[in-house]
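Sharing a chain and its predicted structure for anyone who wants a worked example. Both blocks are below, sequence first, tokens second.
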Amino acid sequence: MDSTENNSRKPRRTRGTPAYQFRNKFAFGWIGLGAVFLAAWVYTPTFKKINKGLCDSLFTPTEEEIDRRYLFSFPKPLSSREIQKRIDEGKEFNSQR
């Protein structure tokens, strides 16, 4: 038989031990504290000023970006009426020459 005591051995799993419970409480405490500080920081006027400046600079398209989007934008497909209208305009233009 094995002469080792079960009480003095290290547990194979941490679940259910006091260290496991302490670790969870410690982690949840830090997460809660971080959430409180983040919420307090978000509602300060300094954060609102910084956030407004960042959003204005990042999300407002520049002239170059607008031009680039226009350059690479694909035209919408023509309907049959529009195609017929353009054919008629072409025929009219050619007959005037």
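Comments welcome. The chain has one domain: 18-96.
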